[in-house]
Amino acid sequence: MTPSTEPPRRRRADAERSRAAVLDAAVRLLRRRPDAGMAAVAEAAGVTRQTVYAHFSSREDLLAAAVDRITADAVAALDAAALDEGPATQALLRFLDASWSAFEDNAWLLQAPSAAGPAEPDAARHEPVTERLVRLVERGQAAGEFTPGLAPRWLVAMTVALGHAAGDEVAAGRVPGAEAGAALRTTVLRLIGATRPSAQEHTAATKRKEVA
Question: What CA–CA distance (Å, rounded) separates 57 from 124?
Fold first, then answer.
């Protein structure tokens, strides 16, 4: 059977696998070489530059797809953090740790202006993350762990803004990543009115997560 007579479903599946392979290679490469171009991505993926352009019309298109992939991975990490389980304060720490880890692994990609795209698509990317945080804040307020009276979406908007500010400081080289992550946790806990768990409790929770 020649390529032209292959069933359309098989051709689509082959194209999807090819696109995914190129995107995987691009994300890995751009983490190490933020300035890598399409030719370097093609080399990393083991395909021709024409193949890369067949899936992504421009470097900006490729960057946007990479950010979408990273966002999907971050959402999966948040779901794995079991945000609906246990005390809300502990769940909030797991949320912050997972989201900051995703940023540290992909700082340049997530900060790149050309990758962010228009404001509306960028907001749509954030929505799965913010919705999970809204539910967590609502749960914490209902349980009396977080300060009541303030709208959950307002607290979430402030938390997201703090995360962006921390990311900007790291990207600019003004604050080390670990220091910014720790400061972000402390500031968000104070913003939401949560009582920070002891170091022993946080360590125990982390070990339980690793064992699970």
Answer: 22
Q: Which amino acid is at 14?
A: D
Cβ atoms of residues 70 and 26 within 8 Å: no
Query: pLDDT digit string (tens) for 19-28?
Result: 999 999 999 9
Distances (CA, A) of 118 to 20, 113, 121, 122, 124: 24, 10, 6, 6, 10
- Is the torsion defined by CA of 11, 15, 18, 24 positive or negative? negative
Domain residues of the chain, as ranges?
A: 1-57, 59-211
Name the nearest CA neighbour of 19 among 45, 44, 39, 43. Answer: 45
Residue at 48: amino acid letter: T
CATH architecture of 1-57: Orthogonal Bundle (1.10)
Q: Give the integer Cα–Cα distance in Å for 189 and 51.
A: 47
* Distance, CA of 43 to CA of 14 (rounded, Å): 19
- pLDDT, residue 205, reads 46
d(CA 212, CA 199): 20
The fold for domain 59-211 equals Tetracycline Repressor; domain 2 (1.10.357)
